[in-house]
Amino acid sequence: MAHSQGCLGIYWTEAYRPCENSLQQAWCGMGAYPSFSRKAGSKVEMANVLVGHRAIAAKQLAVGAASAFKAEAGQLLQIIDLQGKQVASLTAFTGDHNEEHLSTPVTITTNASLVLKTGDKLYTQKGTPLFELVDDTVGRHDLLTSALPIEADTASTVKSKVSTRDSLQEAAAEAGLENADVTDPVNLFKHVVIKQRGELDVRDSFSERNDSVVLRALTDSTIVIANAYSEKKPGLAASQPANGQPGHLLVRIYR
To answer: Alpha-carbon distance 81 to 69, whole Å?
Structure first.
């Protein structure tokens, strides 16, 4: 398989997909859900990581929206891209007073990789394991960039600015986490390429309709997730999503 021209070789080109997911089905109601499907030749194989589990919380997030969820150790967190090309910015907090938070630098260092793979764990700034990635239909996520600090309407100097970072902070505050540090989220489904001279390039997500990830909680935590604004380059919002229409994320917690 060819690598992207000018890249360091740690990311594949857009032509590479870890699996095909066009037959996936996401049901928006809570209850029984058969996870997602993969296509191996002509045979459809159903992932079984959620078999035997029951959804105890579910919420859809529009673009720019964020929400907080409580998860106990052993529970499963599923995030579904209902339309495709969306980015889920995720952070989390734990500890006696929620003093520990998800850290992408510690996650990169501990996993010794910039690429998040099934079986990898996400860690706090103190090295506490928060989650394990147990299933993934996309295989491309971002651990390098911060939450987008500006609104899609970058031309306006009058309109009050909102941002992915603001949305994460507001959702955290509503969950009782004042002044939460949300600067280093894991950006699920986000496609960031490192060029030959170290520049970052944001490209269209590989995520298609109903692609998803499943994380297992390794400790009790408060999770904050935003349906992030699109970017045309790192730190600069795009005027519209890559596919022309904003889509929703579906977040579920399973016991």
So the answer is: 17
